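Dear colleague,

Following up on yesterday's call, I've attached the two folding results inline so they're easy to grep. Please treat them as preliminary; we haven't cross-checked anything against experimental data yet. The first protein's sequence and structure tokens come first.
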Amino acid sequence: MGGLLELVRLRRTFGSLTALDDLSFTVPAGHVVGFLGPNGAGKTTTMRAIFGLTDLDSGTVRWNGGPVGQEERRRFGYMPEERGLYPAMRVAEQIAYFGRLGWPCS
């Protein structure tokens, strides 16, 4: 699956907190990207935007120049630092969250 992932001027706020502020980068085919940064830097929010799990205030996520759809997202890989459950999230919310991620993938 070759292609180009583009994040263009992503902005996401949660009340007075700005999680993403004009974030842009590209990932060419065949490249692996890792996010490093302190808690609250926007790493998880960025991944949620790529996978369509959070709404953006502005900006675009593109795959090969077009919008990212469910079919494309099913082929993306994501390995979070924490591979377990989220202690602050209710069980039903976790099930729904993992379901939206397509986890487990067959």
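Below is the second protein, in the same order (sequence, then structure):
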Amino acid sequence: MRCMLCESLSFMHICSSCQETFLSPSLYKRRLSNNIEVISFYKYNDIKELLHTKHTDIGYYIYSILARNSLQKFAMNFEYEHNISSIAVDDTVTSGYSHTAILNRSLKSKCIRPSFNKLRAKNTVSYSGKSKEYRITNPRDFYIKYFKCKQVILVDDIITTGSTLMEAVNTMELNKKQVLFCLTLADASIV
């Protein structure tokens, strides 16, 4: 096969050289209005085309590569005094896989235990390309399925306005869970 970025022959969808050149993560931080920190690894515009593969067959491989290069490295260096859970934002399976579950799975480490199928949206509305007003008037209406751990990390692919993560944090807090911080692949506010 050929690398999606440089078109050279490769055993992977994105060759090692391009992963090193174009997919080396950086840390970008911002805070939600409730003061919860969101850590992202890429500028949205730098990986936009790759993120848009999420509802295609090839998206599984692209998201696995992105997760391995960013979230997995983060998890291996993350230390905490006890085990915590990572929870994907609405890891419902579409197109044969869940892109947020791929990200969440990559966080498995000595103190992070990924939990799956725990935070789901009742509303399946798509926010892609929608305004902040649209997002506010059409909430995801999250609910939680029982899990033991009290402290969590929330995981999503993109942060734009922050409304999805805010709603997810509020749902967690209403269910007596403490969100330590959120992780996303990309932040759309960074230029």
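For the second protein, one point worth flagging: The first helix runs from residue 16 to 22.

Best wishes,
A.L.
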